[in-house]
Design goal:
242 residues, alpha/beta, Rossmann fold, five-stranded parallel sheet, 5 strands, 40% helix, 9% strand, globular
């Protein structure tokens, strides 16, 4: 694996000149995660998963994109959001640039729900152009890994935000940025159409927490990250073999 941010261009060029060379991009967000987790939680998680994948695939790891389409959290100060079109443009341009540098495969590790549709659109554009094989990973296997260790009740089906799961992940990645003294549960009431149309989350949770972070542990976080990496590798098996 090569960390492009810390590596001279000549070494990156040599690495990407090999057959089936891979560039991996973590795509995160600067988004509120309650009073106890940093705004960079999504980027840190994507970067950790991407780093482990790069090690396993002997890939070039690109520096993370620290911003994403986080409109649903824009009501919380500190959240900085990109438009959908900007996310598409950034991912497409970086894929083209990685291909021009020699990468034959471009893997994006998506760290935020709001990036899913624009990243899928960007991967489609790259595939259609034929410049590079491209895929965006939306944490395959993570939901099952969370349910295997979860002790708290989720605030809503499939919603894991600043609660036990994300707090556990950050405790595993960097416990120095987790303020457990500020962690408190919040279980909002949602309208019947929640999740089916765009909604800004500050209407429902004053703290930005959706669930209970109290049962979080670093061991749970490590389980979630490791399982996500293994599931990602399973998804990538045919992509890498083509």
């Amino acid at each position: 694996m090569l960390d492009a941010y810390r590596t001279p261009w000549t070494d990156v060029a040599a690495h990407l000149s090999r057959p089936a060379s891979v560039a991996i991009l973590p795509f995160g967000a600067l988004e509120q995660h309650g009073p106890h987790l940093p705004l960079g939680t999504d980027t840190a998680t994507a970067a950790e998963v991407a780093h482990r994948l790069a090690e396993r695939l002997d890939a070039v790891l690109l520096p993370p994109v620290h911003y994403g389409d986080t409109w649903n959290n824009a009501g919380y100060p500190g959240t900085v959001s990109l438009s959908t079109a900007t996310v598409v443009a950034i991912a497409t341009d970086l894929g083209r640039s990685a291909a021009a540098a020699g990468a034959t495969r471009f893997i994006v590790v998506n760290g935020d729900w709001g990036n899913r549709l624009p990243l899928a659109q960007a991967m489609r554009a790259l595939e259609a152009e034929g410049v590079v094989r491209a895929i965006a990973l939306d944490y395959p296997g993570m939901d099952a890994a969370i349910e295997a260790v979860r002790e708290s009740r989720p605030a809503a089906p499939g919603l894991n935000h600043a609660e036990e799961a994300e707090t556990s992940i950050m405790l595993a990645i960097d416990p120095t940025v987790v303020r457990l003294d500020r962690a408190a549960p919040e279980y909002p009431s949602f309208p019947s159409d929640f999740g089916t149309r765009p909604m800004q989350l500050h209407r429902f949770s004053a703290s930005g927490v959706f669930g209970d972070p109290a049962p979080a542990t670093a061991a749970k976080g490590e389980h979630i990250i490791a399982a996500t990496v293994e599931s990602s590798l399973a998804v990538l098996a045919d992509f890498m073999a083509e």
